[in-house]
Amino acid sequence: MLKGKDILSALDLEPDDIVDLMGLADRFREEPRSSAASGRIMTTAFFEPSTRTRLSFTFAMTRLGGNVVDLGPEEVTSRAKGETFEDTIRMLDGYGPDLFVIRHGQPGSAAAAAEIAAAPVINAGDGTNEHPTQALTDLYTLRREYGRLDGLTLAMVGDLKYSRTTSSLSYALSKFPNNKVYYVSPPQLRMRPEVLDNISGRLRYEEVERLEDVKEPLHAVYMTRVQRERFSDLSEYERLKSYYVLTPEVLLRLPGRPIVMHPLPRIAEIPESLDSHPQSRYFQQAQNGMYVRMALIVRVLGLNA
């Protein structure tokens, strides 16, 4: 049961919760308009830039008949005057929203907000830590493609050190049996040790440096961008930003017939020539996020739908 629960980590979600959300997302795909959230208010507070996550949550709540109050960019709020994150959350909570959706650049920020707010908090990305609703979106995309969430083999490629989406997806995949991930990255951007510790014994994985080192048939190749905003040394960013580029020719050489996924935005790692490729799913993946977030809002608020 997710009613009233903070969604801070993909580890917070049980397999039954995930399967239930997938089924409800399918229902909203068939009928994406509802009055289930009529009279409810969701507050979005994004302290980092966002397009897909912020807007898909907004569309999701609006399609459910609810209302959205957005904090707006920091430069038009008292954050620009030096107000602390904690005081901003206290102030917003005082207005009585039914739900918070929060993104912030500091790992642990969503958990800190949950300690303050009376309303449930959904983590929309806390620095390099996690992005659980993206993981749900990714699982939903895989389930629509393959009809299951177990026995899948993925290659996660690129910036794994700073990517919150790959950590959350790893945790989510570890909830289901017989899944495996190839972590493909340069040595400087390998998956963080705490993520590997959390999946140990629950998700099989191999760390490799080249896509050519992947020998098993893949169900999906999950590309990530090298995140300029996480680098203190921009010369290192420039050196690594195009380390992996998935062209149609590279895709053809991968074992199996994997779908191509990406949490977006992309930079150079996926060229536009791949957009119309029959294995590409990243724009559908972004659309799927709205249906998944509709389902999550309904369950966290305990609504009838």
From TrEMBL:
It catalyses: carbamoyl phosphate + L-aspartate = N-carbamoyl-L-aspartate + phosphate + H(+). Pfam families: OTCace, OTCace_N. Pathway: Pyrimidine metabolism; UMP biosynthesis via de novo pathway; (S)-dihydroorotate from bicarbonate: step 2/3. The keyword DNA-binding does not apply. Keywords: Pyrimidine biosynthesis, Transferase. One of its GO terms (biological process) is 'de novo' pyrimidine nucleobase biosynthetic process. It is an enzyme of class 2 (transferase). L-aspartate binds at K81, R164, R225. Carbamoyl phosphate binds at R52, T53, R103, H131, Q134, L264, P265. Its EC number is 2.1.3.2. Residues 5-143 form the Aspartate/ornithine carbamoyltransferase carbamoyl-P binding domain. GO terms for molecular function: amino acid binding; aspartate carbamoyltransferase activity. The keyword Transferase applies. Coiled coil: none annotated. It comes from the Archaea. Residues 150-298 form the Aspartate/ornithine carbamoyltransferase Asp/Orn-binding domain. Belongs to the aspartate/ornithine carbamoyltransferase superfamily. ATCase family. Catalyzes the condensation of carbamoyl phosphate and aspartate to form carbamoyl aspartate and inorganic phosphate, the committed step in the de novo pyrimidine nucleotide biosynthesis pathway. Heterooligomer of catalytic and regulatory chains. This is Aspartate carbamoyltransferase. It comes from Conexivisphaera calida. The lineage of its organism: Archaea, Nitrososphaerota, Conexivisphaeria, Conexivisphaerales, Conexivisphaeraceae. The gene is pyrB.
